Amino acid sequence: MNKNCISQENWGNTGFSYTLSLISGKYKMSILYTLAEFGVVRFNEMKKYIGVISYKTLSSTLKDLEADKLVNRKEYPQIPPKVEYSLTERGKTLIPILETLCEWGTKNKLPK
């Protein structure tokens, strides 16, 4: 990190701010982790795995991640509808960051 004069800088122009705008939100990291861990995942599988997320929140968060080109949505024309989600190539570039966070959590987890 560079030592710059804060009065001449703007948080919104930083790469860190941009990255946070893509991954911040209560469940975005959980969804990205799920897709990184399991590859191609169907909507209901993800809902069951994450557990505490509502259907509406999961749906809207997946749409946000898709709009940001981090998640791919593949819909199959059948009844009942089948939709699968996976990481895009762009989304896969976040995996090393997620792995680092997981390692940190494993090493620094406080006992209950």
From TrEMBL:
PROSITE patterns: HTH_HXLR. InterPro entries: HTH_HxlR, WH-like_DNA-bd_sf, WH_DNA-bd_sf. Residues 5-112 form the HTH hxlR-type domain. Signal peptide: none annotated. Keywords: DNA-binding, Transcription, Transcription regulation. GO terms for molecular function: DNA binding. PANTHER family: TRANSCRIPTIONAL REGULATOR (PTHR33204:SF29), TRANSCRIPTIONAL REGULATOR, MARR FAMILY (PTHR33204). This is Transcriptional regulator, HxlR family. The lineage of its organism: Bacteria, Bacillati, Bacillota, Negativicutes, Veillonellales.
